[in-house]
Amino acid sequence: MSIIDKCNVTVTGTGKPTLVFVHGYGCDQTMWRFVAPGFVDSHRVVLYDLVGMGRSDNTAYDFTRYATLDGHAEDLCAILTELEITDAVLVGHSVGATIACLAALQMPEKVSALALVAPSPCFVNDDTYVGGFGREDIDGLIEVMDENYLGWTAHVTPIISGQPQDGAATTDLTQSFCRTDPAIAKHFGRVTFTADQRAEMGRVAHPALVLQVTDDTLAPKAVGHWLADHMARAELRTIEATGHCPHMTEPDATTTELRGFLERIG
Predict the structure, then answer these.
(1) What whole-number distance in Å separates Cα of residue 108 and Cα of residue 77?
(2) Is residue 94 flagged as an active site residue?
(3) Which H or E run contains 209?
(4) Listed residue (227, 251, 222) closest to 239, CA to CA
(5) What is the bridge-based pairing of β-strands 111-117 and 208-215?
(6) d(C-alpha 77, C-alpha 65), whole Å
(7) 216 is catalytic
(8) Active-site annotation holder among 72, 93, 206, 244
(9) Each residue of 123-135: pLDDT tens digit?
(10) pLDDT classification of 266: cutoffs 50, 70, 90
(11) Least crowded by CB within 10 Å, which of 34, 105, 222, 258?
């Protein structure tokens, strides 16, 4: 099976640079539907589903290959190669932002810039870094997810969206989480919430937009400042909003920031 079919790749629009959108944990490419179409008239736009998510080929989810985020980064690189993209601006959300950075390190010649939406290279606090959660919090989160995935989903999606239980973004996330194979969701959840890619972030040399939300439980302000300080060519921009998904809850502000970044990198 080709990487295009494996990851349910869709391509629209023309123009340069090519924008490649990478979604976050438990989501799929439809979560970009409020932002990506706004660039179709001026850019080639590529969307895809991480293997195991959305309409990707679930049978291709290898629990060994995807035991780290490198497997997903390799898939992204394969998409860039298959579509002969050499000017990609990788637009990643949350763990998708980390995957985008890893892909840029694997194939720097195919990437021109990075736009990181609510990124976090590590969710766990340590002595010098505030990721948002103590180790015991992450262990507890994973334990509950393993024991009762659907119940965990109902609890965590309002926290992620920053909206009430019946909010539109919460509903979108809940439905997406519930569509995901629980075994894959639990495995990818463990990989997502325990990953520590801080060392890799320091190696990224591409121009990078770090787009943060003022009130984000999963990626607090300290994370954005850390990335801006440790990535060689990063600029930090902030959206006044609540939650971890500004592309869903504040799409106009997210689009404006992305357009501004594209203009600045020329």
Answers:
(1) 10
(2) yes
(3) strand 208-215
(4) 251
(5) parallel
(6) 15
(7) yes
(8) 244
(9) 999 989 999 999 9
(10) confident
(11) 222
